[in-house]
Amino acid sequence: MIYDQANKSTFRNIGTVFSSTKATFGHYVTICDDQAFTLDGLQQFDGNNLRTDAAFVGSAIYAPGPFNICSANGWITHVDLTLDCHGNGVDWNSGNNLRISDSVIQGWSQFGLRGGLKRGGYANIEWQNVYEESGRCPNPVGNIGSAGVIQQGGVFKQSGGIGPQGRMPQFSNNGPIIYEYWIVMHHPSYGDSLPLPAGYARSDGKSAVTVKWAPDGRGGADQYKILRKTWERTDDKTPPYGSGKFLVGQVSAKSACTATLCTFADQSESPAAFAVVGISSPSIYYPVLDLWPGDLVLSSGNDTNNEISTATGHLDKLPQFVVAEVHPKMASVFVQDCNPALGGGGDGPVGIIRFSCQSIQGSQNTHFYGGLVLPNSMIYDGGHDRGLKGRLNFLTMGTGPLDAITWFDSNPEKTLTNPWARPDADPADAATGIYDALGTILYDRARTEIRSYIGKAPDQTPQESLTTVMKKFSVPVRVQPDSDVPAIIVKQANAPSPTADIFQVQDKEGDVKVSVNKSGHLKLGGTATITLGAAGTPTGSCVTGSFYTRSDGGPGSTLYVCENGNWVSK
User: Fold this and answer.
1) Please, which residues bridge with residue 388 across strands?
2) N or C: which terminus of the chain carries fewer CB neighbours within 10 A?
3) Is-above-0.85 flag for pTM?
4) Which residues, 6 or more positions from 457, have their beta carbon under 8 angstroms from its beta carbon?
5) Cα within 13 Å of Cα(374), Cβ side
6) What is the three-class DSSP state of 312?
7) CA separation for the pair 323, 299 (Å, rounded)
8) Over the range 475-510, which residues count as b (16 or more CB within 10 Å of their CB) and which as e?
9) What is the spatial distance between Cα 249 and Cα 183, in angstroms, rounded to a whole number?
10) 416 three-state secondary structure
11) How high is the mean pLDDT in each 10-residue block of the chain (570 residues)?
12) 519: exposed, middle or buried (Cβ count in 10 Å: 0-12, 13-18, 19+)
């Protein structure tokens, strides 16, 4: 209807009228290289004016790109895109920024908004106070659902309004069993993708279920693996992770897919074993998703195994169904209100996603996690902050034992797939916690060893080490509960000489009362020694008053006493 190749163009209050021929437009407004495009007001009288069929679905507003050829920047406001199941909302592929505000997008065929970096650029998309409602419109391609927002690389930011909102497809409705389905896309070079939520079925547990999905947007996937879990409705929904019986089928792209639709018949048999890619996987495939169901779909802009190429979302509230491709170690969705009760409702499947809630987390979407900096006191506080409670304060602990801090999660996928990120602790975790509700017992735990270091960086020789079989020290140990109790000192076993003490008991003044030297000689106060059950005749000089007994002696050669510095048999 309108094609904009100018610059700094402004269009106000555009409208469409009823057409008896219907489907006469591919798009209402197409923007090519306008660097400052503004659309203020678009109202369609009838929703049948955009062509909508299996071969082509038009969009009300369309920026085709690619970047550096049709690199439009746009501001869209006060538009009413009530599409009545004919056409899509906004398809922004220019590679430059777009801002939508104070508008309505509802009743689309495949998506309300799509954009990002698929055709190059640096695009970020922002919407403010947008009302979005998917309706129950069928997708003309097939039963693959619809998306509220598809962001293909770059950043999507939302504030105010309602949505984004999409629709998960339901593949059957003939029984009480809830089957949830995921698709793993496989690339010949990059390996498997994360499980992508694809839809659900209400099954009788016997009949075949026809699962449908859209192929990847670049044609890079050569195989598709179909995963299934049964949701019992008695616990929180979790996606497949780790190793388990998830796999119900594996098909090649050539045999199962057309250019726009893939199909698989699940015979409702028991799933086979399958290992899902995880945090430790050397490569994860991030495909382009052109048409994928969900409220918010965060896709890569290119077929890649580089997680930095995937999209991120910044939202006020957690949408119900989020499909995110970003690596689980990185936050993909930054949310003001991260209440898990808001996400994953209904019968549809959920994905592996790491949320970052602004109020409680400090992580960043980058190669490393940003630190959570909590300055505790000013350096020059004049002594006024002495004795205060710490800034990190858990107040009460409830029934123990309960980990307060998990330093190392031995099963991160289990945590990431728990809606509250608080699953049961695992024995192999490293953690600090409280054993009882009153907080009288603090504990540390680790899988194999707990070490202590003083005055040096961690290495293989800690000053203190605790394992399941030994408490070990590499420094002298002094046990002195209070000033009226004798001290026990354990010195290093590698003492420099045979006469050097390796064990002492001292009184409170520090005088040695009992000691054992490296040669095994026992001293009970003073300097005389007692050696019991040794092998062989004593040799060398001795301290008068010392005793020595042999384990291999006989009459007249078992007991020796040191007299005048010499050993004498008795």
Assistant:
1) none
2) C
3) no
4) none
5) 9
6) strand
7) 8
8) eeeeeeeeeeeebebebeeeeeeeeebbbbbbeeee
9) 10
10) helix
11) 91 84 85 95 79 93 94 96 93 96 96 95 92 93 97 95 94 95 97 96 96 94 97 82 95 96 96 90 92 96 91 88 83 73 65 66 36 57 79 82 92 84 92 90 94 93 92 79 63 68 76 80 80 88 90 92 93
12) middle
Q: Residue for token digits 């044609």? A: 219
pLDDT tens digit sequence for 190-216: 999 999 999 999 999 999 999 999 999
422-461 pLDDT, tens per residue?
889 999 999 999 998 888 899 999 999 999 999 999 999 9
Which of 229, 152, 222, 230 is CA-nearest to residue 193? Answer: 222
C-alpha to C-alpha distance for 393 and 158, rounded to whole angstroms? 32
Q: Which two tokens stand for residue 67?
A: 């970047």
Contact 58, 87 (CB under 8 A): yes
CB contact at 8 A, 343 and 357:
no
Domain map of the chain by residue range?
2-165+290-357, 170-275, 402-445, 450-519, 527-570
Written as six digits, the tokens of 293 are: 């169901």
* Beta-carbon-side half-sphere exposure of residue 297 (alpha carbons within 13 Å): 32
| DSSP code string of 158-208 | EESSB----B--EEEESSSEEEEEEEEEEETTTEEBPPEEEEEEEE-SSS-
In 301-449 the beta strands, taken as DSSP E runs, fall at: 312-317, 322-324, 333-337, 355-357, 402-408, 430-434, 442-445
Q: How far apart are CA 210 and CA 296, in angstroms?
A: 24
Asked whether 30 and 72 are in contact (CB, 8 A), the reply is no
